[in-house]
Structures are given as structure tokens and as C-alpha cells.
Amino acid sequence: MLIVADENIPLLDSFFGDIGEIRRVSGRTMSADDVRDADILLVRSVTRVGRELLEGSRVRFVGTATIGTDHVDREWLERNGISFSAAPGCNANSVAEYVLSILSLHAEQRGLEDWTRISVGIVGVGNVGGEIAHKLDRLGFDIRLCDPPRAEREEEGGPQFVSLAEALECDVVTLHTPLTKEQPYSTYHMVGERELDALTSDQLLINAGRGEVVDTVALQARLEQGDAPLVALDVWEQEPRISPDLVDQLWLATPHVAGYSLEGKVQGTEMIYQALSRFLGLPVRKKAGQFLPEPALSKVSFTSAADEDDAVRIALRVCYDPRRDDTRLRAAMGGSADERAAAFDRLRRDYPVRRECSSLKVQLKGTSKSLQDSFRAIGFKLKI
């Protein structure tokens, strides 16, 4: 059995080595010739999967180690008897920690000692948005949830949803919708000229969902104005050929790595391994925890002298500081369009190991219960 897989999916040998022969290829340049003799295809979001790639091949199972599926023509796969599985929610916690780190930086820049004074509008409350909402609610933030499909589908007694316009009134607006174009509540260019004009210089817009949800032309025009909001982008229209001019205009720019914690990536691999095992009628014997290495930093300690807000900021940024990814991306914006695109892909391919907060044990000596609660809400392991 031949398994063709994106070379950037982690732990391919560990999970799939005893199922079949593995052929690693570049996900960005994967072609019909690469997969013609494959039985199994494993991809990430950079590979378009449909008739053009698979017609005439013998592929009978496609797995994507991602939460999104807009790169896969699922209707074509179903018509052609090809099974499909994704990894919904695999990196939700990774993206949530990305957003928390940005909120921490933003609060510090605004001179807020208590970061929970920031109101946050969460647009798209699926696996990722829901995880962010859960953490922020436990931390005591004022949050507004915007998800029209859920609001229409769910009855009273569930979460309280607001309109997009109401979410855009918050200090920070963070986008986590799928990309849809023809369904009700289309998200393509959902944030356009009108929505951007409603934002002020006191606000921050984060997009760690899908690049095409924000109209890039309208965004660049808005950022040229004196009262423009701060903007942090992790996802981009026309990746990997992103605009260096747009990067220059942003408060924070990262190369589509919000979900790139080691835990998130390995969980994605585990989920498609489980789905493939079920498809083949094989027992599911492997779990991600078997393969996670010892973290480079395993423990930090705070005493009763620690300032609560400082302690949270320090611990968060020990695990992940988005400014490092911002610096790497800006440094990659030289050269021709082809060179920049290749550099963008290299940043993702060669991404350094990033561990989630759950990998770090926080020792608290004589600290308050509120600080303990904050660390628990974020997801740290505590030793008291």
C-alpha cells in the first residue's frame, strides 16, 4: 500500500510506517503524477484536492491534518467513492494561545495592568473560536460571540450571540470563521470596506482564520488612513505570495503559524491516523502522547512577590511570543515575488518547535487563588 503524504506532516513514520510505504512530497507543488499510483493521500491546507489532482489515480482515502476543509472538493470525492477525513479542532488550543499572547502584548502596549479590561469580539465560534471564548470567559474578559449560522441553528438557552456590527465594537476583534462563498452567511470578504471603516485606532483586528475573510485591498486602503486600527494577520489572501507592502502596514504579521504548536500538529496527525485505521479495519494503537518529546523548558516558579499580571505575561511568552514570528516574516520579505513566496513556505516548513502551555509546569509559592485560577484557565500545569 502506497501512502503519499505532505512532507510537513509530523510523525508520518511513527503513525503510518507499519501501514504502508510512505512517499513524501511537497504539499505546495503536489501534482497528479505524484499521486497517480497512491492508495492513500495525506495533505495539509496548501494542497488543493479534487478532480485535477486525483482523477485517474487509485486513491481511495484522503486525510487532511487540518481543521479546515475548503481546500478539498468533498463533493467530488464522495461522487467518486473516495473516503475523506479531516482533523477538526486539532489545533484549536494552539490558536487560542496565539490569540492570548497577542492580547497580552496589546494590553501591555495600551498600558493596562489588568488585561481583562479588554473587550473581545469573537467572530466564528466553532472549535477554535469556542476554545478562545472558553479561556477568556474563565479569565474574566468581556466577550461577545458572533456566529450567525449557530445563532440561527441553536435554540434559546445556548450562548448569547451578537451581530457582526456589535462584535466590531469591541476593543479587540478576532476572526475564526471557515471560508465560505456560496452558502448563507458567506464569509468571503466578510470584513470589507464598511466593516473596516467602523474600526478605530483604539481597536485591534486579528485574523487567524482564513485570509480571504478580509478584503485585502480594502484593508490596505484603510491602513493608509490616520485613524486606522491596529491589525495582526496570521492568514493571508494569495498565500504564499503575500504583499510586503501590507506586511509593512501591520502591527503584527506571522506566516500562518497560529496553529503550529507541536501538540496541535501531532494531534492532527493522530486524528487522520485514527480515521485511516477505521477505514482499513485496523486497530487504533497509537496516541500522540507516545511521541511528544520532553519540552526544552519544563518548569517556571513564581513566589508571593510576583505581580499577578506580570506572572501571566511572563509564562505566556515563555511558551510563545508572536513577535519572534513577526520578525522572521518581515526579514523574509526581500527579493522577488517568487523568492518571497518560497521564503514564506520555508518559514512554515522549518518552523521551530513550539510547545503549548500544558507542557510547562508552573510552581506557585504563596501566590493568590486568583493567580492560580488564571494559570489554570490558560492551561498551565500547576504545582502549589
Secondary structure topology:
Blueprint: E1 2-6, H1 12-16, E2 21-25, H2 32-35, E3 40-43, H3 51-54, E4 61-64, H4 74-79, E5 83-85, H5 92-109, E6 119-123, H6 127-139, E7 142-146, H7 148-153, H8 164-167, E8 172-175, H9 193-197, E9 204-207, H10 216-223, E10 230-233, H11 244-249, E11 252-253, H12 262-280, E12 299-303, H13 308-319, H14 322-331, H15 337-349, E13 361-365, H16 369-378, E14 381-383
Parallel strand pairs: 1-2, 1-3, 3-4, 4-5, 6-7, 6-8, 8-9, 9-10, 10-11, 12-13, 13-14
Helix pairs in contact: 5-6, 6-16, 13-16
Short structural summary:
The chain is an alpha/beta fold and 384 residues long.
Structure description:
- The structure is a single chain.
- By secondary structure, the protein is of the alpha/beta class.
- It folds into 3 domains: 2-86 and 261-290, NAD(P)-binding Rossmann-like Domain (Rossmann fold); 92-253, Rossmann fold; 299-335 and 349-383, Erythronate-4-phosphate dehydrogenase, dimerisation domain (Ribosomal Protein S8, Chain: A, domain 1), CATH 3.30.1370.170.
- The protein is built from 16 helices and 14 strands.
- The strands form 3 sheets. The protein has a 6-stranded parallel beta sheet with strand order 7-6-8-9-10-11.
- The longest helix is centred in the C-terminal third of the chain and has 19 residues, at 262-280.
